[in-house]
């Protein structure tokens, strides 16, 4: 028994070693034919056969570690066809039929009335036939023929794909024309392939001249043309629906990563339609590599009371966490434009938007209510990525772990919350904080707050010791670096606080003490409840996460949201508005702040300085319709730029000041302003 028991692992290990050696041998066979194989024959079919015949049986295992664009292409197509049946799919240059096996993982083959694998290479078609027979696919047909000439027996196809084949078809115009001519009006054409950009290409495709030269010459050795002409021609024939540009590793070739793209198009409906936010600027220099805020840090309730939102409204707002942009839609705004110069904030809101459009409520709740999702990788691949822009796709594909560790512990504010929670735990205050967050009544919350040793000390301790302690906290936790990268408070806004004669530690103490004494965290203050716990509650969360409101957004309201990654002033000039929410945007500006900037930021002074304030005020006067409302908050009790907005033609009113007491559920600002655009005859 003992010897027999020992033989199992040894046998398994020996089998594994043999399989590994066999896999290495197969890879080397493929590599030999890739690098040293010749293409002989008078016709394209003969040249393909001479190239693939010796490697056809080893083709699939090697290509699965090389052709990285196949799965995202199939997932994107499946996501758009999942509600349809009796589909016709033609895989042009389908090779061994591996795409069909992959598609079955994203969209069961029962959705297809017929699948045609079309390829000119006899050896690859033979592998396809073996695969079809082995899997018992009755609706899959292998056609040994030319993609330029194949005719769909049913007359039209719902899906046509070119998976790493268009770059190997010399008369690619004929292949594209043939495919487009047989595509149903509501059909999709998908392409995955290697590529190099043109010298002057769209920003999301652009690459350095060295990479263009290197990769095009390398692939040209095998008569594979990966130039930009094919995609350019596709876009004269079809309307682009989705695209990503990325790079993937190559088996047995260290360091080098081959560029590939995935492109989906459909017959033209609106020739002027383009992805608005993909052409905008990147983040200014010295911006963090991720977002600062996972949620919007301004209370939307006071906003809604003064803005009188209606269906005729076109509203411009800064993105931040994006929660308040969606709240505007739920309050009836016809069109909401949400802009942020940090593309990570735009990517966060875009993920929320696509999740609402494509997922069930429970999945959205897990992602953005709990901040975690156990199956985020699969969800992203099959339901989210196929609808994200290039910028958002690039951002999220390497950060899905956010939803493993907890979304609300990521980004600047999230990391600050995590650090404060860790400090609370080290100081034995962790459970006290939890009790505070979950106090059943406001009275009990006040009792819990005042009983905290740290709070009691700050309110009742010796003044000298309290002063020394507060200065130490200000030095360690509330310095300019932490406030900028953790709380999004730049130097200019910090200066505004100091100009009011309020030390930063007292400013922050006023904020949190006002919340603890006046706002019930468990019942209605989801902002700080989330900071303490790292998640929301179903009855205490941003409006878009409430099930009834989610249903309204998914029912069509979310389509009224435009996400722009760029500068506020550019988006303000783009259209007329009835309502504008400046948040604390103007606090960040001023010539005094420009003088403090590192040289690296001087290229971006067009979005800074007092001159900008004057330009902003003048542009508001031009773009906000008469009777339109502009609101903002400030860290200053009397922000100096309010007069510039008044001089531009607005009736400016200060609605609240922190010096008068508790402000709102965020309570983080010193003043709240409204400006109404006067009529031009006034």
Automatic annotation (TrEMBL):
Species whose genome carries this gene: Tetradesmus obliquus (Green alga)
Protein name, per record: Methyltransferase domain-containing protein
PANTHER family given in the database record: BTA1P, METHYLTRANSFERASE DOMAIN-CONTAINING PROTEIN
UniProt cross-references to InterPro entries, sorted A to Z: DUF3419, SAM-dependent_MTases_sf
Alphabetical list of Gene3D superfamilies matching this protein: Vaccinia Virus protein VP39
């Amino acid at each position: 028994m003992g010897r027999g028991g020992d033989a199992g692992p040894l046998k398994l290990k020996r089998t594994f070693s043999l399989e590994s050696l066999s896999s290495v041998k197969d890879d080397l066979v493929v590599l030999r034919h890739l690098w040293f194989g010749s293409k002989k024959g008078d016709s394209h079919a003969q040249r393909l056969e001479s190239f693939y015949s010796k490697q056809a049986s080893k083709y699939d295992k090697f290509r699965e570690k090389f052709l990285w664009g196949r799965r995202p292409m199939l997932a994107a197509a499946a996501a758009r066809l999942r509600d349809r049946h009796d589909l016709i799919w033609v895989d042009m240059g389908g090779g061994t039929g591996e795409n069909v096996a992959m598609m079955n993982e994203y969209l069961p083959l029962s959705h297809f009335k017929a699948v045609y694998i079309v390829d000119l290479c006899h050896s690859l078609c033979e592998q396809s036939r073996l695969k079809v027979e082995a899997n018992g696919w009755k609706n899959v047909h292998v056609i040994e023929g030319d993609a330029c000439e194949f005719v769909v027996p049913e007359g039209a196809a719902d899906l046509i794909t070119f998976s790493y084949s268009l770059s190997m078809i010399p008369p690619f115009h004929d292949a594209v024309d043939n495919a487009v001519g047989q595509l149903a009006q509501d059909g999709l054409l998908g392409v995955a392939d290697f590529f190099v950009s043109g010298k002057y290409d769209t920003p999301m495709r652009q690459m350095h001249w060295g990479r263009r030269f290197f990769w095009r010459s390398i692939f040209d050795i095998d008569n594979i043309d990966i130039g930009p002409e094919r995609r350019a021609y596709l876009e004269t024939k079809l309307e682009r629906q989705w695209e990503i540009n990325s790079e993937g590793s190559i088996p047995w070739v260290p360091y080098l990563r081959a560029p590939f793209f995935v492109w989906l198009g459909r017959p033209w409906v609106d020739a002027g339609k383009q992805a608005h936010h993909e052409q905008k600027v990147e983040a200014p220099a010295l911006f963090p590599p991720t977002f600062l805020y996972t949620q919007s840090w301004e209370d939307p309730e006071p906003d809604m009371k003064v803005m009188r939102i209606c269906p005729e409204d076109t509203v411009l707002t800064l993105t931040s966490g994006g929660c308040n942009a969606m709240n505007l839609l739920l309050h009836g705004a016809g069109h909401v434009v949400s802009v942020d110069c940090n593309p990570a904030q735009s990517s966060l809101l875009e993920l929320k938007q696509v999740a609402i459009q494509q997922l069930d409520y429970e999945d959205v709740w897990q992602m953005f209510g709990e901040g975690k999702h156990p199956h985020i990788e699969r969800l992203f691949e099959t339901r989210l990525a196929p609808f994200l822009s290039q910028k958002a796709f690039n951002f999220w594909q390497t950060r899905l772990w956010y939803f493993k560790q907890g979304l609300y512990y990521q980004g600047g504010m999230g990391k600050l919350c995590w650090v404060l929670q860790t400090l609370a735990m080290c100081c034995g205050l962790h459970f006290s904080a939890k009790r505070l967050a979950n106090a059943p009544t406001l009275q009990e919350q006040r009792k819990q707050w005042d009983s905290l040793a740290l709070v009691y000390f700050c309110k009742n301790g010796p003044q000298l010791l309290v002063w020394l302690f507060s200065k130490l906290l200000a030095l360690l936790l509330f310095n300019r670096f932490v406030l900028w990268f953790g709380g999004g408070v730049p130097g200019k806004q910090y200066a505004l606080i100091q100009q009011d004669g309020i030390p930063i530690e007292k400013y922050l103490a006023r904020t949190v003490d006002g919340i603890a004494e006046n706002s019930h965290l468990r019942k209605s203050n989801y902002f700080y409840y989330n900071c303490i716990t790292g998640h929301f509650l179903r009855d205490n969360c941003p409006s878009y996460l409430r099930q009834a409101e989610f249903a309204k957004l998914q029912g069509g309201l979310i389509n009224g949201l435009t996400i722009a990654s760029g500068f506020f002033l550019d988006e303000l000039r783009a259209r007329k508005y009835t309502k504008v929410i400046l948040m604390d945007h103007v606090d960040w500006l001023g010539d005094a702040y420009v003088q403090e900037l590192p040289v690296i930021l001087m290229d971006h002074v067009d979005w800074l300085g007092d001159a900008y304030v004057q330009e902003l005020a003048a542009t508001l006067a031009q773009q906000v319709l008469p009777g339109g409302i502009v609101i903002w908050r400030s860290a200053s009790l009397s922000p100096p730029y309010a007069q510039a907005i008044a001089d531009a033609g607005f009736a400016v009113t200060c609605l609240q000041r922190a010096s008068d007491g508790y402000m709102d559920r965020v309570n983080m600002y010193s003043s709240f302003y409204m400006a109404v655009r006067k009529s031009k005859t006034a």
